[in-house]
Amino acid sequence: MGGGIAGWLTPGWMYHEPRLAPHIHKPDFVDKMLKDAEDPKEMVMEECKPQCTFWKDKLTRCESQLETVIKINPTKTCLYPMRDYVTCIEACAQPIIHNSLEGIQ
Questions:
Q1: What is the DSSP string of 2-49?
Q2: CA 62 to chain centroid
Q3: Which end of the chain has the smaller Cβ count within 10 Å, N or C?
Q4: What b/e sequence results for 56-88 when a residue is b if at least 16 CB atoms lie within 10 Å of its CB, and e otherwise?
Q5: Taking the model in full, what pTM does it have?
Q6: What is the pLDDT of residues 37-83, one digit of tens each?
Q7: What pLDDT, on a 0 to 100 scale, did the predictor assign at position 77?
Q8: Angle 26-60-82 (CA atoms, 0-180°, nearest 5)?
Q9: Contact indicator for 1, 8 with CB cutoff of 8 Å
Q10: CA angle in degrees (0–180, nearest 5) for 78-21-32
């Protein structure tokens, strides 16, 4: 998908970039925690954070630049880089938990 002229002209089409699509193998503790009626989301999110270094670096750059820009324009924020970083972590963690639920199997 996204090859040739149509790929460059059609919004939303792009080549698959693995660093922008995080994925980890399902940790062993997920099934055990779900069976014990515990929420594994926090631990899975911690496992996913190293996969989102591209977005974390982008957020860090924004925050460092914001320190000088905010003196000139106090309405500027790093909302979008923060949203991208959180979305990356959620995109990694959510399928692991969802696919481990009892009704899915």
A1: --HHHHHHSTT-----GGGS---PPPTHHHHHHHTT---HHHHHHHHG
A2: 17
A3: C
A4: bebbeebeeeeeeeeeeeeeeebeebeebbeeb
A5: 0.77
A6: 999 999 999 999 999 999 999 999 999 999 999 889 899 999 999 99
A7: 93
A8: 60
A9: no
A10: 100
